[in-house]
Amino acid sequence: MPTFIDSARGFARSGGDAGASAIAAPAATGRLYVGSEVGTLRRVVLHRPDPDAPVSPLYVFGRKQDLAFELDVGGSADQRHHVRWWRAKPRDAADRALWVGDATFDRDAGISHLTGQITHHIAPDIDAERDRLMADLAAAGQLAWQYEWPGVGATQDGRNAGGDRYYTDGLMAVGVLKPDARP
């Protein structure tokens, strides 16, 4: 089974060409328009992958993500894993870049509860994607160490901006990459 690390490596090998691997490049982030909605719907109905699918922007630090990766599940655009990254302004004590990430799983496509547009709906267990990402990084030998940090606190019946339900233990996973870690 492919992992997020495989996607990052594929992106790096392709020179950033999103069509060369199962990811969405940063350039594809947020390019949502009627044509992209129709294309997504067509691929979902026909159970076909969508390697050029745009990734909806999420905002942290007042800006959309700096980098986004997508990993399709099976042969359909219906389900996919997403990882989004924002580079934080401060650096750590060892002068390393700090990144804040988000991982979600699109469980299916449908109509937005709020806008009426075609969209993907996330799986409610958002901790499962966080744990998958950390497991992928650990299995690839990329982590020097990892730990959990208190976050927003447990949420049993939350809703995201699209109206999808979610739940979480509220912890943040922190992973420190090895100095020689490379995608």
Short précis:
The protein has 183 residues and is an alpha+beta fold. The chain contains three helices and ten strands; from the N terminus they run H-H-E-E-E-E-E-E-H-E-E-E-E.
Write down the overall mean pLDDT.
Answer: 74
Biggest beta sheet summary: 4 strands, antiparallel
Cα-to-Cα separation, first versus last residue: 17 Å
- Assign the structural class, choosing from mainly alpha, mainly beta, alpha/beta, alpha+beta, or little secondary structure: alpha+beta
Helical coverage, percent range: 10-25%
Count the domains. 1
Count of helical segments? 3
Unreliable residue stretches: 10-35
Walk me through the structure.
This protein has 183 residues and is of the alpha+beta class. The chain has one domain (4-177). 20% of the residues lie in helices and 36% in strands. The chain has helices at 4-13, 34-45, 126-139, and strands at residues 59-60, 63-64, 67-72, 80-91, 97-111, 118-122, 143-150, 155-159, 165-168, 171-177. The strands form 4 sheets. It has a 4-stranded antiparallel sheet. A two-stranded antiparallel ribbon has the order 1-2. Strands 7-10 form a two-stranded antiparallel sheet. A hairpin with a 6-residue loop joins β5 and β6. The chain starts with a helix and ends in a 6-residue tail after the last strand. Mean pLDDT is 74; it is low at 10-35.
